Amino acid sequence: MLKKFWLPVLALLMFAGSVFxxxxxNNADQAALDSIAGVGPATSKAILAEREKNGNFKDWADLExxxxxxxxxxxxxxxxxxxxxxxxxxxxxxxxxxxxxxxDAKAAAKxxxxxxxKGAEKGMEKGTERGMEKGAEKGVEKAPAGx
Length: 147
What we know:
Elements: H1 2-19, E1 23-24, H2 30-34, H3 41-54, H4 60-66, H5 72-81, E2 83-84, H6 94-126, H7 129-142
Parallel strand pairs: 1-2
């Protein structure tokens, strides 16, 4: 009775482990690549052809650069589906996230500069150098963040 229960459970666990197994772009054959959600026959052939022509992929950026149709957005999806490059999942590209971060930083710096300028102008109205410094400091403190 116990054998009848544990045998299907063991088979289920073995199957579940194989479903979630990672597929490395440098070692996989076409069938393994096709098993990844989002990788069709054209993409798997392109990966295999590029790997055969120019050798293994160094990292995700190398795969993105060499295989047409695999960009940062697609790489995120493929990695989530189980594709790896040199055993590593996709960690993200510096292009999308850092552009937004750079824009936020520029906007914040601009707001601080604008606040400092306004504060310095108010200090100049008072006519003293110390007044200018104090006004600039207050302007920086009051500058709106991220505008």
